[in-house]
Automatic annotation (TrEMBL):
Statement: the UniProt record of this protein carries the keyword Metal-binding: yes
GO molecular function annotations of the record: electron transfer activity; heme binding; metal ion binding
The Cytochrome c domain, residue ranges: 46-127
Organism: Hymenobacter cyanobacteriorum
UniProt KW Transmembrane helix keyword: no
Protein keywords: Heme, Iron, Metal-binding, Signal
Record InterPro entries: Cyt_c-like_dom (IPR009056), Cyt_c-like_dom_sf (IPR036909)
Name assigned to this protein: Cytochrome c
Signal peptide: 1-31
Amino acid sequence: MGKIFRKNARCAAGVGLLAAGLAGLGCSKKAAPAPANPCNDPTPSTYAAVVAPIVAKNCLDCHGSSVYQTLGGGNDYSTYQSFTRLSAAYLMSSVRHDPGADAMPKGRAKLSDCDIARLQAWVDAGRPNN
C-alpha cells in the first residue's frame, strides 16, 4: 500500500510541476500589441470623423444628393444610410482600383494608401455609424 501511495504522490507532484511550468510559460509571454491605426492615425476609423470626410472629398461630386441621378449612376452616398447600401466588397475593390472593378473616383487619381487603409479599418470594424 505504501508503494502505491508514494508512486501516486510522485506522479501527482510531477503533474503539478508540469502544470505550473506550463502556466508560467503562458504568463511569461507579453501580450501582443494592439494593432496600429492606419497610417499612425490616432483617430479610430469612425464614420463621422474619418469616413464621411473621405466620402465628401472624393465621392460627392458625382454621388451627392443633388447630382447622383445624373452623374453618379443613381447612387447617392451623401448619408451614412445611403453609403452603406453599397457592398463593402464593391467599395473596397473600387477604391483600390482592383482589376475588373469600377475604379473610383471615376476619372481621378486613386485614393491615398492611408485613406484606403482608413476605409478598410472601418469596413473591418463592421461599418459602424459612429
